[in-house]
Amino acid sequence: MSSPTTINLIVHRRRKHRKSEDILYEYSKDEDQLRPRTQTVKNRAATIYVPPTLIHSQISERPSDIRADPTILIYNNDILEILSSTSMEDIRTIHNNECLWIDIPAAQDFSLLTKIGQRFKIHPLVLADIETIAQRTKLDILDDALFLVAKVIYIDRSSSKTCIDQICFYLQENILITFQQQPKDIFDQIKKKISENRGRIRRSRIDYLFYLLCDTIVERYMDVFDKVGTQIEAIEDHLMQKPSRDTLETIYDLKREMLYFRGSISPLKEIINRLQKEEETQIIQESTIIYLKDLYDHVVQVNDTIDAYREMLSSFIDFYMMINSNAMNEVMKTLTIISTIFIPLTFIGGVYGMNFDNMPEIHWKYGYYVVLICMVSLTFIMLCCFKRKKWF
């Protein structure tokens, strides 16, 4: 039978990382063998490559076979139909003056995705991208559709923490399908406007709704960066008062978040530019392009905010290092002054510590007191000189 040390070595060598699970091995006392058991990995940064300070809603613990009822709206300026059935066959064929919006709140419902793909003839590669939860922000222009993958960064109202989710848009003429990874309420206000026929949503084509949903996502970005700005101001105040190692760790966490935000949001600039080009696709109407320009300005503003925050955090790190360096310099200056004072005192003590017979001062009655007074006076003179030069 193998020794416990040998078993531990085998356990260490056989530990492997497999996407969202680790295969660990435990030793059985009854059987001389190693048995595999699975344990869910809780380190979200190792599985989805996001900063551990952020919550990725895609890996929250929930059943893999999710069943979520989609929201199906058929509307124009005169009519509004809200369907509650999850069967794609029940959706009627829409007319030219009607728009269809299907909001899928949980894209992990693979059976529903298959039905949607068959009903609307979505390419299998597009469905594969929807099922993949770690996609980059991108835009695919197909023959008769647009496919957009974006990141939703928002503040959870219950926990007040920053959360990340992925959302996909599949836009055809008069048809828009949105795929969320987890049910959220970010589009509830838009659904309410459609129900109450407020604004110009029901008077416009489906591309205006597409713009409005994208603009809602960008507005959530701004809410998140308002919170980040408050955190940066608090860090700045703390640096001025009493910086600590925890402060430095907080700065690095925020800097990693900014790096992730930049990678998720900056591609939107090029994407919106492509959408504004009329030759790219005929789905986006000319009347919507002006709104896309406004959306582009908002995205640029968000990116500028990210760059500004990153520069501020970098300057905070430099400032923290400077403070630590100055503190170390003060310590070294104090130790140097003490060492400098003791150099002549050590010399005097060393001279009169020699055991030569021909040293008259040793046999003098007041020799000890004179040397002691000289050492004290020399120390006082040196301190006065250091003080005059403002070395302390």
Q: Can you characterise this structure?
A:
The chain has 392 residues and is α+β, with helices and mostly antiparallel strands. The chain is 52% helix and 17% strand. The chain contains eleven helices and eleven strands. Strands 4, 5, 6, 7, 8, 9, 10 and 11 form an eight-stranded mixed beta sheet that branches. Strand 9 and strand 10 form a beta hairpin. Helix 7 runs antiparallel to helix 9. The protein starts with a helix and ends with a helix. The N terminus is likely disordered.
Strand residue content: 15-25%
Supply the helix-strand structural class.
Answer: alpha+beta
The ordered string of helix (H) and strand (E) elements is HEEEHEEEEHHEEEEHHHHHHH
Give the C-alpha Rg.
35 Å
Summed up, the helix count is: 11
Task: Calculate the terminal CA-CA distance, rounded to whole Å.
Answer: 69 Å
Main sheet characteristics: 8 strands, mixed
Low-confidence stretches: 1-49, 59-64
Helix content range of the residues, please?
40-55%
Rough outline = rod-shaped
Per DSSP E runs of 2 or more residues, the count of β-strands stands at: 11
Mean pLDDT: 79
